[in-house]
Amino acid sequence: MAIKLIDFWAPWCSPCQAMKPVIEELHKELDGKVEIVEVNVDENPTDATKYGVMSIPTYIILKDDKEVGRKIGYTSKADLLKLIAT
């Protein structure tokens, strides 16, 4: 099963910047298990529209290209791992 975490963010977003270290830790811990895709909403507005992203940061979990989870706003690494595990 292919699992993907999509991180919708922007450089001007304070909560997004606060989440950067968490996302970097997930990159290291989940390397080879979960594909992590970071989407800058300023540079890729069509991706944000495609997934109905209205606020950032937004984290979307896809399993076999189907959305199975979504978290909006600043969150903990533990919460993201729980979302990935569902």
UniProtKB/TrEMBL annotation:
Domain Thioredoxin: 1-86
Disulphide bridges: 13-16
Active site per UniProt: 13, 16
Site positions for Deprotonates C-terminal active site Cys: 7
Site (Contributes to redox potential value): 14-15
Tagged with keyword Methyltransferase: no
Swiss-Prot/TrEMBL keywords: Disulfide bond, Electron transport, Redox-active center, Transport
One Gene Ontology CC term in the entry: cytosol
Any Pfam family the entry gives: Thioredoxin
UniProt-recorded Gene Ontology molecular function terms: protein-disulfide reductase activity
GO biological process: cell redox homeostasis
CDD domains tied to this protein: TRX_family
Domain of life: Bacteria
Family in the record: Belongs to the thioredoxin family.
Cited NCBIfam families: thioredoxin
Name of protein: Thioredoxin
